[in-house]
């Protein structure tokens, strides 16, 4: 099962993913975890990072160019993610395809019905074979709070200089709006929306992690039952057809 956790920069995705991972492992559910972009592990991600910090000329100005780099980062491990899911792991992803759709559309001042969201979907899942998550989770937070977290993070770690996207408050606001529209439309697969408390409020974070783990475990069990009884729906359809014929 592939679960993608989404949200703007500073939303608290890493905090929630960590808590959910701990909760699932406590329930003896096997977990694999990947954060995107995979800086330091992907040439495409590293080129995108260089662009976001002004080291690749005018590349950052190309919405489609940047989106393609992020998509290629995911494509590098697409087969591995699918295999882990098939082997019974819950694959927790910090950002995935919806991030590319949300940020790209926001950069072009488009909404969820604009052409860029569909272009990203066709690029990633169509052309590059990136798997579609079984569940997507939007970590919804006020953009001002997210920006405060980004600033605080940079103050604590001088190496984490905010990139061009993180530093653009208007972009972050538009991206948050696109994310909410994607979740409302159940874009690509089912979505859950959670509000993220301050990371210092450990009890609240753990409570949200437990709730989300409940959802993941229930969906995982339902998928396993469906795989174990693939003819159940067909049998129901046959029975219904027979009833219609009798009528």
Automatic annotation (TrEMBL):
All residue ranges annotated as the Thymidylate kinase-like domain in the record: 5-183
Enzyme class: transferase
InterPro entries cross-referenced by the UniProt entry: P-loop_NTPase (IPR027417), Thymidylate_kin-like_dom (IPR039430), Thymidylate_kin_CS (IPR018095), Thymidylate_kinase (IPR018094)
UniProt GO MF annotations: ATP binding; dTMP kinase activity
Biased composition (Low complexity): 237-247
Keywords, sorted A to Z: ATP-binding, Kinase, Nucleotide biosynthesis, Nucleotide-binding, Transferase
Region feature Disordered, mapped onto this chain: 221-247
One Pfam entry name: Thymidylate_kin
A GO CC term attached to the entry: cytosol
Catalytic activity, as annotated: dTMP + ATP = dTDP + ADP
Ranges of compositional bias, category Basic and acidic residues: 221-232
Role played: Phosphorylation of dTMP to form dTDP in both de novo and salvage pathways of dTTP synthesis.
Membership in a protein family: Belongs to the thymidylate kinase family.
Protein name stated in the entry: Thymidylate kinase
Origin species: Corynebacterium bovis
């Amino acid at each position: 099962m592939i679960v993608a956790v989404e949200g703007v920069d500073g939303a608290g995705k890493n905090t929630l993913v960590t808590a959910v991972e701990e909760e699932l492992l406590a329930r003896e559910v096997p977990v694999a975890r990947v954060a995107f972009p995979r800086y330091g592990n992907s040439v495409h991600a590293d080129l995108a990072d260089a662009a976001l910090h002004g080291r690749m000329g005018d590349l950052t100005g190309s919405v489609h160019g940047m989106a393609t780099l992020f998509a290629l980062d995911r494509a590098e491990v697409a087969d591995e993610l699918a295999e882990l899911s098939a082997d019974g792991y819950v694959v927790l992803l910090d950002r995935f395809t919806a991030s590319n759709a949300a940020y790209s559309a926001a950069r072009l001042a488009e909404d969820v019905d604009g052409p860029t969201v569909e272009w990203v979907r066709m690029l990633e899942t169509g052309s590059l074979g990136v798997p579609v998550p079984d569940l997507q989770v939007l970590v919804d937070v006020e953009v001002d709070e997210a920006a405060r977290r980004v600033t605080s993070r940079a103050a604590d770690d001088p190496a984490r200089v905010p990139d061009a996207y993180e530093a653009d408050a208007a972009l972050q606001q538009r991206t948050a709006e696109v994310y909410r529209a994607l979740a409302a439309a159940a874009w690509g697969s089912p979505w859950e929306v959670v509000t993220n408390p301050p990371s210092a409020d450990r009890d609240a974070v753990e409570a949200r992690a437990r709730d989300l783990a409940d959802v993941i475990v229930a969906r995982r069990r339902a998928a396993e039952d469906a795989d174990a009884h693939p003819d159940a729906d067909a049998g129901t359809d046959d029975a219904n057809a027979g009833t219609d014929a009798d009528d």
